[in-house]
Amino acid sequence: xxxxxxxxxxxxxxxIEASYFRKQGEKGAVYMSISVTNExxxxxxxxxxxxxxxxxxxxxxxTVVSNVYTMIPLIGILxxxxxxxxxxxAWAGSSVFSLFYAFGFLIFGPISDRFGRKQVLVPGMxxxxxxxxxxxxxxxxxxxxxxxxxxxxxxxxxxxxxxAYVFEYLSTGKKAHSRCLD
Length: 182
Hints:
single chain, alpha+beta, three-stranded antiparallel sheet
């Protein structure tokens, strides 16, 4: 008579399904059968990647969109620092950014279709970081207007590209998930 027991173990990120049995009356002899399922390992990696990408894109999206609003509380300070009317300071604060941000949407979507999502997204975020730093060094209202325009235009490299990237990445993840279920 055979006694058998099934064991599921998780070892080194690999799911191992094992069965062992012992013949009646035998001491010490154990016969084992082990099978490793790579599909579960692959699905776990896909889920981890989706989580990391989702968190990074959400944080970047929040940062990019907040650039529209960060200068609004500073309008009075800009007006007195650069000795310009409040309307001009408001234009430098958020209007010029918003105008070039909208224009950039029309440009960066097609560029990412042609050259690839990461090839537009990564340099765009690096350039946005540099242009945001340059805004802090503006010595005149004209340089502030220029740097905010550049900042708005480059910030637009995130929105349409990130949405297309998420759509493509999630569809890949769903395909991988459906393959694991087959």
